[in-house]
């Protein structure tokens, strides 16, 4: 789904907005999220999930073709962890036992 498709969906689902106003709302939400994440804060959206910025240290990697070591610089990465509500929507066929096993870290 593209940003334009998100704008169209907001325009159709929420009455009382022009398409331009819907675009401004979507842009404002994304800009706010970018600003918060750039500051290193996390975003928690109830029923959806958490966006968290993590710091990764510098490390040595390997060139897969030559095997030569390559330094990988330190950086910040964005991670997303879906909420249990979103997981249930994505996997409605899963049993409660499977979900509890995943929560404990074991697998079938």
Folded structure, characterized:
By secondary structure, the protein is an alpha+beta fold. It has a domain at 1-39. It has helices at 3-13, 19-38, 84-90, 96-104, and strands at residues 43-45, 49-56, 59-62, 69-72, 75-82. The strands form two sheets. It has a three-stranded antiparallel beta sheet. A two-stranded antiparallel ribbon has the order 3-4. The model has no long low-confidence stretch (mean pLDDT 90).
Structural class: alpha+beta
What fraction, in percent, of the residue positions are helical?
A: 40-55%
How far apart lie the N and C ends? 33 Å
Average per-residue pLDDT, rounded, comes to 90
Write down the Rg.
Answer: 20 Å
Summary, kept brief:
This protein is α+β, with helices and mostly antiparallel strands and 108 residues long.
